[in-house]
UniProtKB/TrEMBL annotation:
Catalysis performed (reactions): pyruvate + phosphate + ATP = phosphoenolpyruvate + AMP + diphosphate + H(+)
Organism from which the protein derives: Streptomyces omiyaensis
Start and end residues of each Pyruvate phosphate dikinase AMP/ATP-binding domain: 65-290, 297-347
Transmembrane segments: none
GN (gene name): ppdK
Coiled-coil residues: none
Protein name (Swiss-Prot/TrEMBL): Pyruvate, phosphate dikinase
Annotated GO MF terms: pyruvate, phosphate dikinase activity
EC number of this enzyme: 2.7.9.1
PEP-utilising enzyme mobile domain sequence ranges: 423-505
Keywords assigned by UniProt, alphabetized: ATP-binding, Kinase, Magnesium, Metal-binding, Nucleotide-binding, Pyruvate, Transferase
Ranges of residues in domain PEP-utilising enzyme C-terminal: 539-890
Enzyme class label: transferase
Family assignment from sequence similarity: Belongs to the PEP-utilizing enzyme family.
Length: 903
């Protein structure tokens, strides 16, 4: 980014507002908004994300930045009546990161900047509290040393532990001023030994280095990993907030806390949060000291509590959402340090959205935008069986719901290593910190013995949708010995299986069985949302889903191959079948008929094999059409290579060799082996499959078409309403489709003549090859519908073999940022998506009434559904379990588009 000479890089808190998140980051924009609302915010200023972008691209700060910072610092000093770092009454500031999107704990913060060997004494005199001053100084050296100078954090932690051990106390609050003076000297010696320089005594140097460190923290490994996990763009940069310090560690009449306007775990209204007396903010979120519930503040400091409740109500009404608030009380004076729209669990998201509608703060369209398909999917996961025999070993705070089972591991490295080996793990720590992010992502769930609902583990887990139990104090976690000890003395070693319930906070030894979630029972019709005893969460899901169904344009179908799956899909809200894979009907006992077809040496043998398959196929289709009566069913003709229906070449070779050595009869196996060799291909996914099979093996596709047509006629005779679409796979040129279509129409006409039943069977194709997408206008002349097979289209566009690349190099591609997400998970809009878009336009130009859908796995991916709405598809099709997710996202896409149009 080139630097504009007129560009403004620094904004006072009085100059911004919440709409400037792109420029001021979420923290800076919301500090400005609270300042505008007249709330008690310590004065300060924000360095913009644009300054960060210049720094990251050029390696140096914008030329104008230092002068702008100096001007705002001068104004801050005049306002506060003290100067940064002055010896007698120093102004101290915090330097905190603040990106557009919340990234809790991923980037850097430094508190108490401005303290030095001289100013610490001035602070002690000004505060009349020597212990407080030296505690603040040791905190600065510890945070600055780790964050800015890159000193290993454990060195400071060990030194502090040594001081506590020497005095035989358990908490740092039990260390007096003399003890802390010794800790400071030890910390300074660590800095000198590790960096080769003294801890900087110049306050402006401290601030400038801290600002630069915050810029650099945007590109730390943990920040990049978090952005990939949360799909946050990597080019946004972070703002930097410089704020005058207020102190929660001045004694018992001071403290710090985090509050939520509603419970982020359940969504229920009430007083939720954590408070810690005589502490700074980092103590709360780090989870290193166990907090008291926010409600206890009422008895500790009633005046501050009442003021905080009033402010929380003001903020929730203003933001019209759950707010997450950080505050400090300095000798009875309440200060607001941050607010943001709070991260919440999936269940809380649905409950809060409907509550806010009922309170008149938002409408149904906005409520729909407050939830998403990923959250709905989380609600559909199983939960622990309450009636199972279990061995409870502890209980903590229910920080993020879910039922997680796995082997106990005690560090991030092991969690990642075991997870990559296919093991399910539970990451157990005393408390987590940002460096544990890798392990938190890899684990099924997180368990900590310290911290509360606002600790790092809880906040990050909720954001990721991970099950989490925090503050299980009765469990003693020993990470060095890799074990956990229960209150009864039982020892859980690394590798032992544990189960954690993020909805109750209970911890169990061993694997606890699970049962379906009430949300799944609702979708399957076993729980009625209108019933008096219906679960509150189910009611909320029902209301939002009902609105999504009313406003969505995209219809949602299912990928289903049998009547059982079709019936379940219909209960989940499917509006038809978008993909019935007929190859699944050829497996099991029917494989013998396929073998006979492949081994046929004459037309008569081949016809006999096809004749045997016909009634079996017809029965399958009758059942399927009955299950989906009145709804469209798209049947794909046989697609995979024929060798997939034959025995494994190695096993068959061994079988033949053994038979020969034993002089046993093996003529049939020998013929099979010859056929397997004959059909073997180096790259079968690009070989004899799809439409090519129908053209090369006479009668194969016409047998399937006849089975479909006869089944449809039988259903009509039975007063049914089959709406059948026949789909020809892997077409690359219109000529292929024309030949198959001509044969299909002939067979359908024969069935009509034989049964006397009028049939209207649509004929179309899959668009799964780049050539098909490019020539879609021509292909539409012979196709009544297109269904985009985005799995194969992604493989052929990228030149990837899905079965191979995801295990071999996708991890490296994700880590290097080549992919933000796997193109098999979310559609590649620039490549595959561009082909889909152009094929839609070309197909409709040729045949305006052509029906367009997608049946690849992208049909159930939330982000991809929005793309398919945008390009104008008529429907998406996905696995039955993902149908509710697709319905919700189709509604969100429509509401979002309507909102954009109205703006």
């Amino acid at each position: 980014m080139s630097e504009n000479n007129d560009q403004k890089f620094v904004y006072d808190f009085t100059e911004g507002n919440r709409d400037l998140k792109d420029l001021l980051g979420g923290k800076g924009a919301n500090l400005a908004e609270m300042t505008n609302l007249g709330l008690p915010v310590p004065p300060g200023f924000t360095i913009t994300t644009e300054a960060c972008k210049v720094y990251l691209e050029s390696g140096s700060e914008p030329a104008a930045l230092r002068d702008e910072v100096s001007a705002h610092l001068d104004a801050l000093e005049r306002q506060m009546g003290k100067k940064l770092g002055q010896a007698d009454d120093p102004l101290l500031v915090s330097v905190r990161s603040g990106a557009k999107f919340s990234m809790p704990g991923m980037m850097d913060t430094v508190l108490n900047i401005g303290l030095s060997d001289e100013s610490v004494n001035g602070l002690a005199r000004q505060a009349d509290n020597e212990r407080f001053a030296w505690d603040s100084y040791r905190r600065l050296i510890q945070m600055f040393g780790k964050t800015v100078l890159g000193v290993e954090g454990e060195l400071f932690e060990d030194a502090l532990d040594e001081a506590k051990a020497a005095k035989r106390v358990a908490s740092d609050t039990d260390l007096d001023a003399a003890d802390l003076r010794g800790v400071v000297e030890h910390f300074k010696a660590i800095v000198k030994a590790e960096t080769g320089r003294d801890f900087p005594q110049d306050a402006r140097e401290q601030m400038d280095l801290a600002i630069e460190a915050v810029f650099n923290s945007w590109n730390t490994d943990r920040a990049k990993l978090y952005r990939r996990q949360e799909r946050i763009p990597g080019d946004l940069g972070t703002a930097v907030n410089v704020c005058s310090m207020v102190f929660g560690n001045l004694g018992p009449d001071s403290g710090t806390g985090v509050a939520f306007t509603r419970d982020p775990a359940s969504g229920h209204e009430g007083v939720y949060g954590d408070y810690l007396q005589n502490a700074q903010g980092e103590d709360v979120v780090a989870g290193i000291r166990n907090t008291v519930p926010l409600a206890d503040l009422e008895s500790i400091d009633k005046k501050s509590y009442d003021q905080l409740m009033q402010i929380m109500n003001t903020l929730e009404t203003h933001y019209k959402d759950l707010c997450d608030i950080e505050f400090t009380i300095e000798r009875g004076q309440l200060w607001m340090l941050q607010t943001r729209v709070g991260k919440r669990t999936a269940g809380a998201a649905f409950r809060i959205a409907t509550q806010l509608v009922d309170q008149g703060l938002i409408d149904e369209a906005e409520a729909l935008q407050r939830v998403n398909g990923a959250q709905l999917a989380q609600l559909m996961f199983p939960k622990f069986d309450e009636n199972a025999k279990v061995e409870q070993i502890g209980r903590g705070i229910a920080a993020s719901p879910g039922a997680a089972v796995g082997k106990a591991v005690f560090d991030s490295y092991t969690a990642v290593k075991w997870s990559r080996s296919g093991e399910k793990v539970i990451l157990i720590r005393r408390e987590t910190n940002p460096d544990d992010l890798d392990g938190m992502i890899a684990a099924e769930g997180i368990l900590t013995s310290r911290g509360g609902k606002t600790s790092h583990a809880a906040v990050v887990a909720r954001g990721m949708g991970k099950t989490c139990v925090c503050g299980a104090e009765e469990l003693e976690v020993d990470t060095k010995r890799r074990r956990m000890t229960t209150a009864s003395g039982a020892v859980i070693e690394e590798g032992d299986v544990v189960s954690i319930d993020g909805s109750t906070g209970k911890v169990y030894l061993g694997e606890v069985p699970v049962v379906p979630s009430p949300v799944v029972e609702y979708f399957e019709g076993r729980m009625h949302a209108g019933a008096d005893d219906a679960d509150e969460l189910v009611q909320a899901v029902h209301r939002i889903m009902a609105y999504a169904d009313r406003v969505r344009r995209l219809r949602v179908r299912a990928n289903a191959d049998n009547a059982e799956d079709a019936s379940r899909a219909r209960r989940f809200g499917a509006q038809g079948i978008g993909l019935c894979r007929t190859e699944h009907m050829f497996l099991g006992e029917r494989r013998q008929y396929v073998e006979r077809l492949i081994l046929a040496d004459t037309d008569a043998e081949r016809d006999e094999a096809l004749k045997a398959l016909l009634p079996l196929q017809k029965t399958d289709f009758v059942e399927l059409f009955e299950a989906m009566d009145g709804l469209p069913v798209t049947v794909r003709l046989l697609d995979p290579p024929l060798h997939e229906f034959l025995p494994d070449i190695t096993e068959l070779s061994v079988r033949v060799a053994l038979a020969e050595s034993r002089k046993e009869p093996h003529e049939n196996d020998l013929r099979l082996l010859q056929a397997v060799h004959r059909l073997h291909e180096q790259n079968p996914m690009l070989g004899l499959r799809g439409v090519r099979l129908g053209l090369v093996i006479p009668g194969l596709f016409t047998m399937q078409v006849r089975a479909i047509a006869e089944a449809a006629a039988q259903r009509i005779d039975a007063k049914g309403d089959p709406r059948v679409e026949i789909m020809i796979p892997l077409v690359g040129t219109v000529q292929e489709l024309e030949i198959v279509r001509e044969d299909a129409e002939r067979v359908i006409a024969e069935v009509v003549a034989e049964t006397g039943v009028e049939l209207k069977l649509a004929l179309g194709t899959m668009i799964e090859l780049p050539r098909a997408a490019v020539t879609a206008g021509q292909i539409a002349e012979a196709a009544e519908f297109f269904s985009f097979g985005t799995n194969d289209l992604t493989q052929t566009v990228w030149g990837f073999s899905r079965d191979d690349v995801e295990a071999s190099f996708f991890t490296a591609y994700l880590e290097k940022g080549i992919f933000g997400v796997s193109p098999f998970e979310t559609i590649d809009k620039d490549g595959v998506g561009a082909l889909v878009r152009s094929a839609v336009e070309a197909g409709r130009a040729t045949r305006p009434d052509i029906k367009l859908g997608v049946c690849g796995e992208h049909g159930g991916d939330p982000e991809s559904v929005h793309f398919f709405h945008e390009v104008g598809l008529d429907y998406v099709s996905c696995s039955p379990f993902r149908i509710p997710v697709a319905r919700l996202e189709a509604g969100r896409a429509a509401a979002e588009a309507k909102g954009s149009d109205s703006r």
